[in-house]
Amino acid sequence: MSEPTPSMSRDEAEEQLREWAEEHGWQIVFPNDALDADVRPGVVDAVLIRAHPRTPDMLQLQMVRIKTDGARPPPNQVKRLHESLERVSAKTLYACFDDGDLHFVETDTWLGH
User: In whole angstroms, what is the distance from residue 3 CA to residue 67 CA?
Assistant: First the structure.
């Protein structure tokens, strides 16, 4: 993957990141794609996810901030990016299909939580 250049657009940078992820066995999610507004409320621009190559029940996540200007990231953004790991909300669900209907069941109830 080539380094982003100052003239690179955000869309071009996202596309390069998409291509890199695919070539290296990662799935990629752009959380702000789910928002209707053209607003970047958080420091995380993308999340890379994959099953660990040797331990498939272990998921690897990488939080990504995209920079297209070639400058060093500001320390406050680096700190926020690191802190984003502490703010991950995770839970387990079963996706149950019954005669074509989809139902989600939270597994916490099965474990008595």
Answer: 10
